[in-house]
Design goal:
By secondary structure, the protein is mainly α. The protein is built from 14 helices and two strands. The chain has two domains: about 1-70, Histone, subunit A; about 135-354, Alpha Horseshoe (Serine Threonine Protein Phosphatase 5, Tetratricopeptide repeat). About 60% of the residues lie in helices and about 0% in strands. A two-stranded antiparallel ribbon has the order 1-2. Helix 10 (about 250-265) packs parallel to helix 12 (about 290-305). One of its GO terms (molecular function) is transcription coactivator activity.
Length: about 350
């Protein structure tokens, strides 16, 4: 495997099978080179597990351990202990494992009982669901705690709110309530979109939850819902945006910082959190039908995701957006005063990115 090479022809066939029939030779060469390197890399890593196990035969578990080490999804369905025999097609270009036909009727009706079939066991796995019917029934104490915390978060007394936020940050007993709090925050932002202070409190609640070391947000529904709630505050023209006395800009700044924290902490190659977040921010920024407050949020979000995102996504695509922004800044008419002020906020955000 030290010299494993995946030829361009194989890449081309796989691309055509996936609907990409117009890949150029340069692209095929780059993909082939990268895949060949990755295969050699994971194989070399897997041999370390083989040697550690004092074996001379590489097995699929060694390979899966190497994949997990590289944050790549493991391979399933290839753990058979039987030796696989590869055959060659007539043209000689492809090797394959021949599938044997199995008659299940003969097996089901046969009198032969396999030996050493092992003991029957049950292995349980917890699933937490977000929407109503799948929720686990709560005890009265947990339900009372949930009701008290949600009321305290929106209390007019700032000390009561702070106590609720601090408890969400450190309480180890709220694991069964995680789906409830995620629902509360994510759907709450749309309910109180007219109130800057309540939106800010809900973002603080998200901050407390993600910093609670006892909570696990790796299940993708949790991450997706939390990110969507933050994106709503960051890029949507919420009702507060149309009141010039409301400082919705600070709300968007805080949402951007929180978004960056979540992506840095929880993104991995399996959940595609970074890719999906960048794509959504990019779509908002270069949608010229969106208001400038949304564009401002998209810029601040991209900045929060790091210098690499700014250099690879924001700066190369900036010329297509600049003329639209410049036109709004140059319009000094009275009716354009608010739009012009918002455009200058976007301009300031772009200067920060540089």
């Amino acid at each position: 495997m030290s010299f494993a090479i995946i030829p361009k022809e194989s890449i081309r066939m796989m691309g055509e099978a996936s609907g990409y029939a117009d890949l150029s030779d340069d692209v095929l060469s780059l993909i082939s080179e990268d895949i060949s390197y990755r295969i050699r890399e994971v194989t070399m890593n897997s041999t370390q597990y083989m040697k550690h196990g004092k074996r001379r035969k590489l097995n699929t578990e060694d390979f899966n351990k190497a994949l997990r080490q590289m944050d790549v999804q493991p391979v399933y369905g290839h753990g058979s202990g039987e030796v696989l025999t590869f055959k060659q097609n007539k043209e000689g270009d492809i090797h394959f494992v021949e599938d044997t036909e199995v008659n299940f009727c003969d097996i089901a009706l046969g009198k032969h009982i396999p030996k050493n079939i092992g003991e029957t066991t049950i292995k349980g796995k917890w699933f937490w669901f977000i929407s109503g019917k799948g929720k686990k029934e709560l005890s009265e104490d947990l339900l009372s705690y949930y009701n008290n915390i949600t009321k305290s978060l929106l209390d007019i007394d700032p000390q009561v709110r702070m106590m609720a936020l601090n408890d969400l940050r450190v309480n180890p007993n709220i694991v069964p309530l995680l789906s409830y709090f995620v629902n509360y925050v994510c759907y709450g932002v749309k309910t109180v979109s007219h109130d800057i202070s309540k939106l800010t409190i809900l973002l603080h609640a998200i901050t407390s939850l993600i910093n609670n070391p006892n909570l696990d947000f790796s299940p993708q529904p949790y991450l997706n819902l939390m990110v969507q709630a933050i994106m709503y505050n960051l890029t949507e023209p919420v009702a507060t945006s149309f009141n010039n006395t409301n400082d919705h800009w600070s709300l968007r700044d805080y949402a951007a910082r929180l978004l960056g924290e979540i992506v840095r902490k929880w993104s991995n190659p399996l959940n595609h959190l970074l890719y999906n977040t960048v794509k959504e921010l990019k779509d908002v920024l270069f949608d010229l039908n969106k208001p400038f407050c949304s564009h401002y949020g998209a810029v601040m979000g991209l900045i929060a995701l790091g210098t690499k995102t700014v250099e690879e996504i924001l700066l190369p695509n900036l010329p297509s957006f600049w003329s639209h922004l410049n036109m709004a800044m140059e319009d000094t008419s009275i009716r354009n005063a608010l739009v012009r002020a918002d455009a200058y906020k976007v301009y300031g955000a772009l200067l920060v990115s540089l």
